[in-house]
Write a structure and sequence with these properties.
mainly alpha
Length: 270
């Protein structure tokens, strides 16, 4: 997708030269709003952000809970959902851009001043540029697919494998069998791990798989029973707790009850 096609898809109502003028106006308005927000005193900025956060959350709460009209699945706010969704996508893009800008600024300073580990920062900056150019200019080409599938995915797999190794080694060092419960936990973990790997399944491969009572004593059968029967209720309870916790955090963010150090410091300065 070239730049003009992207702009046409982003601004479908724009025609002719407005296809190029519309994004420039959006960027200009965004820059002006950014500097206006920066010029506000700390307390006013905090109040503005809290108000916008509450209104954004209120819109989705009302749209979800407000009864729909008879014979339809829409209420008086449903028509605005696509527009609000587009605004959220723009805000998410600005957030991502701010994160990339901060990352580039920090690592560029590290490379320029040649601080410790600056070669890693240089590789990161080069990788960002190469992947950005490949995604924008060479989308759906062999070059882009090779970078994404053969390089990025391989690095992701290697990173997560390394993290898994460190997690296992840390758990091994921290785990101590000092009670019957700890012993039971260790035995269950060992059985589950053995049941998921070929060598564990080979240890009891001589036991019939189906059609006999003895099949329940196979390591893979015991492992599946522990995962699906014993572990599943605990997983559901943890998931329920996470849901309640997420709801509480969402309400605190919506009502601006979270005390951020940045805004508190700005408010104190004013």
């Amino acid at each position: 997708m070239n730049l003009q096609k992207f702009l046409i898809s982003a601004f479908p109502a724009a025609k002719g030269s407005m296809i190029w003028i519309a994004p420039l106006l959006v960027i200009a308005c965004s820059v002006v709003l950014f500097f206006v927000l920066q010029s506000l005193p700390g307390r006013a900025r905090k109040a503005l952000i809290a108000s916008l956060t509450f209104l954004a959350g209120l819109f989705y709460a009302l749209e979800f809970f407000w009864p729909v009209r008879k014979g339809t699945d829409e209420n008086f706010l449903t028509f605005a959902v696509p527009t609000v969704g587009n605004v959220i996508n723009v805000l998410a893009a600005f957030t991502l851009g701010l994160g990339v800008f901060s990352l580039v600024r920090i690592h560029t300073g590290k490379v320029v001043k040649q601080r410790e580990g600056w070669p890693n920062s240089a590789v990161l900056l080069i990788s960002i540029v190469v992947m950005a150019v490949a995604g924008i200019r060479f989308e759906n080409t062999l070059f882009f697919r090779s970078l994404f599938r053969d390089v990025l995915n391989s690095f992701d797999a290697a990173m997560f494998a390394t993290l898994a190794f460190f997690i296992i080694s840390a758990a091994y060092r921290a785990f101590r069998i000092k009670s019957a419960e700890a012993t039971l936990l260790m035995v269950a973990a060992l059985v589950v791990m053995l049941g998921q790997i070929p060598i564990g399944q080979y240890l009891t491969h001589w036991i019939p798989e189906n059609g006999s009572f003895a099949s329940i004593f196979r390591l893979d059968s015991i492992s599946n029973w522990l995962l699906l029967t014993v572990n599943a209720p605990a997983t559901r309870a943890i998931g329920f707790g996470l849901g309640i916790g997420g709801l509480a955090i969402a309400l605190r963010l919506w009502l601006s009850l979270e005390r951020g150090a940045f805004f508190e410091a700005k408010a104190d300065e004013s």
